[in-house]
Design brief:
The complex is a heterotrimer.
Chain A: H1 2-17, H2 20-47, E1 50-51, E2 54-55, H3 56-76, H4 83-89, H5 92-96, H6 102-107, H7 116-132, H8 142-165, H9 176-185, H10 195-204, H11 212-219, H12 235-255
Antiparallel strand pairs in A: 1-2
Helix pairs in contact in A: 2-3, 2-7, 3-7, 3-8, 8-9, 8-12
Chain B: H1 3-13, H2 33-44, H3 46-61, H4 64-91, H5 100-117, H6 126-132, H7 135-139, H8 145-175, H9 183-210, H10 218-233, H11 244-251, H12 254-258, H13 260-267, H14 272-304
Helix pairs in contact in B: 3-8, 4-5, 4-8, 5-8, 5-13, 8-9, 9-13, 9-14
Chain C: E1 2-13, E2 16-28, E3 33-37, H1 44-52, E4 59-64, H2 73-77, E5 80-84, H3 96-107, H4 111-125, H5 140-152, E6 158-162, H6 170-187, E7 190-194, H7 198-204, E8 207-212, E9 215-221, H8 222-227, H9 235-244
Parallel strand pairs in C: 3-7, 3-8, 5-6, 6-7
Antiparallel strand pairs in C: 1-2, 1-4, 8-9
Helix pairs in contact in C: 4-5
Classes of the chains: A mainly alpha, B mainly alpha, C alpha/beta.
Amino acid sequence: MVSSYLVLVWAWTRAAMAYRASFALMVLLGSVITATDVAVILVIFANTTSLAGFSRDEALFLYGVAGVAFSLCDMFVSNLDRISQHIKAGTFDAMLIRPVSPWIQMATDRFMPSRIGRVLQAAVVLGYALAVLDLDPGRLWMLPVMIVSGIVIFASLWTLAAAAQFVLTDAPEVTNAFTYGSGQLTQYPFSAYGRDLVRGVTYVLPLAFVNWQPGLYVLDRADPFGTPGFMRFLGPAAAVVLALLAALAWRQGLRHYRSTGS
Amino acid sequence: MASQPEIRLRSRAAPADNPALPSAGPCTGSGTERHRAITIRRCATIPLYARLVRYGFRKHATYVWAALAGAFTNSVFGVLRAYVLIALWDARPGLAGYDVVHAVTFCFITQAFIGPMQLFGGGLTVPERIRSGDIALDLVRPASLQLWSMAEDLGRAGYLALARGIPPLLLGAALFGIVWPAGAGHWAAFLTAFAAGWAVSFAWRYLVALSVCWLVDDRGANAFSLVLTTPCSGMMVPLVLVPGPLGEVVRATPFAAMVQAPADVYMGTADVPRTLALQAFWAVALLALGALGTRAIRHKVVIQGG
Amino acid sequence: MIELDRAGRSFKVRRETVHAVRDLSFRIEAGEFVGYLGPNGAGKSTTIKMLCGILTPTSGTVRVAGLDPSRRRTALARRTGVVFGQRTTLWWDLPLRDSFELIRLLYKVDRRAHRERLDALTETLDLGPFLRTPVRQLSLGQRMRGDLAAALLHAPDLLVLDEPTIGLDVVSKAGIRDFLRRLNAERGTTVLLTTHDLGDIERLCRRVMLIDHGRLAFDGTLEDLMATAPAGETIEDVVTRLYTAGVPPERAPR
C-alpha cells in the first residue's frame, strides 16, 4: 500500500520536475494564494481586537492547525476529486486492472509537489501562533493529536466526495462545497458561526473536532456554546468513525461503478 | 411598409451587394480597398454577434446541473463568509460606512459574481485552440477573434448570472436579509456597473488567454491571474476594510472594477459616476491591449505558421 | 481459466432495466485462443469488464483463474494482462520507459526478470525507437505495441484484448497478430480477444464465440462456424447473417 503510493508519487513528481522554473513559480504562487487567507484574517483584526471572543493570535492558532491538516490532504489526497473526469473519459477502467487499490491511484493522480508551498505557509502561521501565545505546556500533547485527526477527517471527507461522484457524474462540483467549504469553515473560531451550523458540523459532519473542540482545550477556553468538557477529547473517535463511513461509501461506489459504453 | 428600411439596411451591410466595393477574398491585405470593405462589414455584422451570444448562452445552458452545483457551492461559501463579517460588524458597528446588512449583502452579491465574472479564471476556448493550432482557422475568419470571444462570453455570463447569480442572493435574503436596489434608476445603475464589470473581467481573461501563445505552461499565467484577482477584487473581504494607501491602490485596480465596484453600486454605497468611470477606463484600456495582442498573435501565426 | 455461470449484468437507464449481458455461461481452458465476436452493443465489453473485475455482475457467477474478479480484483490483476484498443492504460505524461518501470514497481516484479522480459518485448515488438517518448506523443500503432508490452511485463497467464487492432494500418496489424500467435503457441498464454476485424479471427482464433443481445449465439471452432453455412460463403457472409438474423430480439427491457 504505502510503497505503491510512494512509487506513484515519485513518478508524478519526476514528471512535474521536468520544468524546474515552472515548478518553482507554482510553489511560490500556490503559497501566495493561500497566504491571502491569512491576509484576510489580518485585515479583519486590523479593524478589531477581538472576533467572536477570540484574539488575533488565538484565531491564527486555530487557522494554523486546520491549515496544516487541510493542506496536507489537499496535497496528498485531494486528487481523488478528479474521479468524475476519469469516469467520464473512461480512464478509470485502467486503474481497475492494476494490482493497486484505485483509491491510491486516484489520490496520487497528477500529484502536484508544488502544493508543498501551502503546507509550509500554514506551518509558518502555526509556528508563529505557538511562539506568541502563552500556552500551558502540559496541554501541548493535544497538538499532534489534533493534526493527525484533522488529516483523517479531511481525507475521509475527500473520500466521501469521491464516492459520491460515482453517482453525481453530472454535477461533481457540488462536493466542493463540503471539501473546500470545510477548509474555509475551519479557518475561523466556530463562535463566529450560528448555533445551528455549529451543531451540524459537530454532530453530523464532525469538523468541530479538527481544531475547534481540541483547540479550546489547548487554549484553555470554555466553549461559548456550552458543550461539556469531555467533547474536547473526542477528535480521534470522530475521525475513526468518519473514516469507516468513508471506506464503506467508497466500496459501495466501486461496486456500483458503471463503466462507460464502448 | 415597415420591412422596407430593414431590407435596405441589410443590403448596405453586405458589401458584396455593393458594386462600388470589390468582393472580399482570403488574400485581402491590410490597407487595400478590399481590407476596408471587410472592416466595414465587420462593424455591421451585429446579427452574427447576437447569434454568438445566443450560442454561448445555449452552450452553457446544457450544463444545468453543473451550474446548480456551482450555485450551491457559492451559496455555502457565502454563508460562511457572512458569519465572519457579521462577527466583525458586531464588534465594530458602522465600520467603513457599511452596516451589518451591507456586510452580509456584500458577501452574497460577490459570491453571485463568481459565475458570471468567471472570477477563478478561464471560461474562454482561446488557450485550448492556441495549443491545438485551431486558432489559425479562427484568425482567417472575416470577424475579429476578440469580438467573437467576447460575444460568446457574454452569452456564458448571461446564463451564469441567472443560474449561479440568483440562488446565492435568494439564500442570503432568506437566511440573513440583504438590501435590494431601490427603484428603476438604482437597478439601471447596477446593471450598467455589472455589465461593465463583466467587460473588464472578459478583457482581463482574454489577455491571460493570449499569453499561452508565448508561454510554455499556461498554468503559471492562470495562477498569477488568480493571485491578483482573489485578494484585489474584494471577493475575500470588502476592499473598504483595507487601510491606508494600500487600500487606495487595490480599490483602483481592474480587479476592484470587477467585484467591489458593482457590489457598491448594488448596495448604494458608491459614488455612481466615479465608479462607472473607473470601470469604463479599465474596460477600454484592457480591451485595447487585447486588440493589440490579437494583432500580435495573427502576426505570429501567419509568419511562424502557428 | 475462465468460467461463467449464468452471469448477467443489467443497468438502470431512466428507471428501465437494460440487460447488457444475460445468463451467459461458458468455460475457457488454459492455453486456448478465443475470439469473442458480436455487433456493437451486444455485450462484448461488458463481459470483458466483468472478467477484469471492473464491473460487478448483477446475477450469476464469474470466476477467472479460480478467483471472483470483483472481490479479488488486485490479486487477479497480477495474473491477467488487459489491453483496451480504444484507450491506453499507460501514463499519458510519462515516457514509455518510465511507464514500464512504474509497472514493474506496482506489480512487484523483480528487477532481473523485468529486465529480461522488457528486453525480449522490446525486440519482438520493436519498441526501441520510442522508449524515451512520452505516451501522448506516440502514434496509434506505437502506443498499441507499448500497451501490449505493458500488459505482458508481469508475465500473466491470461491476456484479455478488447479490439487491439482497431485503427491500425496493415503492417502494424500483421506485426501484432504474429506476436499474439507466438505468445499463445510458445508461452501457452490464454488469450481472449474481441474484435470487429474478421481477419484477426481467421488468422488467430481456434475457437469463436459470438454474442448477440447479451446472449451466446454461437460457440465452437472456426470450422464449425463455417460448416453452418452453404459452401462458398466467406466468413464475412456467415457473421453478417448471424448478426442480422441472429438471436430473436428478446432484449425488450422489462
